[in-house]
Specification:
alpha/beta, 30% strand, Rossmann fold, eight-stranded mixed beta sheet
């Protein structure tokens, strides 16, 4: 059975790093949670998208190694140098969860649009496939946010898919430029009010409503950020539910 309502899991939750190298990962409880939201009929099907890192093969192999530790059926969609499925739409509609990795959200959006993938992903979302991801895989569903796609100095991204009518801040507690830039963009009305997440925290959207924040790390938080009447920025802390 598909998700009860169109569902997006937008996070600052990457794969958990182990101790045998930079790409030695395991999948944390957010992946199990995403599959539960999808209400799979049998073994959950997860398709991993690494578009934001140019479909780097080592990144994809590491994701397989992490996801295959779970009771799931894993696949991936390449767009470089060409799609690895003849019928991309049919493959993605057959998934329970589509998980989008981090990297350059600017490049991700450009490549998805070149392949008309946003239309397919929108159909998946509406049909009950749970969409999720980390960093670029969180920003992309929103109107925009802050990105290092253009260099170490963060810049705005304002041409997200916009299915979620908010701005989005990722890595809010670990990258010093993120919070002040997002505050300024909202204050100047270059981006709408929106939600942000500390590392380890995710936002659950049912339809376009943010219904819950979850975390894999105790003490972390999500935030609602909006401009006040006098031009100041108000930030409201949202306590997440800790995933086991």
């Amino acid at each position: 059975m598909p998700a009860l309502t169109p569902t997006i899991v937008a996070t600052s939750i990457g794969f958990e790093k182990l101790d045998r190298g930079p790409l030695d990962w395991r999948a944390g409880p957010v992946i199990d949670f995403a599959t539960e939201l999808a209400r799979p009929k049998g073994v959950p099907r997860i398709c991993f998208l690494a578009t934001a890192v140019g479909d780097a093969s080592d990144y994809i192999r590491a994701a397989y190694a992490a996801l295959c530790q779970l009771d799931v059926r894993v696949s991936h969609l390449n767009l470089f140098p060409m799609p690895n499925y003849e019928d991309v739409r049919a493959h993605l509609l057959n998934q329970d969860v589509i998980w989008v990795g981090g990297g350059s959200v600017a490049n991700l959006l450009a490549v998805w649009r070149a392949h008309a993938l946003e239309q397919i992903l929108y159909e998946c979302w509406q049909s009950g496939v749970v969409l999720g991801g980390v960093s670029a895989g969180s920003l992309c569903w929103h109107i925009g946010g802050t990105t290092d796609s253009f260099g170490k100095q963060l810049r705005p991204i304002t041409n997200g898919l916009g299915w979620l009518p908010y701005s989005n801040g990722v890595h809010f507690d670990s990258e010093a430029q993120r919070r002040p830039l997002l505050h300024r963009l909202i204050q100047e009305a270059r981006l709408p009010p929106g939600y942000a997440t500390d590392d380890g925290v995710g936002l659950i959207y049912r339809g376009t409503e943010m219904t819950e924040a979850v975390s894999q790390i105790a003490g972390k938080a999500a935030y609602w950020i909006e401009a006040g009447k006098e031009g100041e920025v108000r930030e409201t802390r949202i306590e997440p539910r800790l995933l086991s």
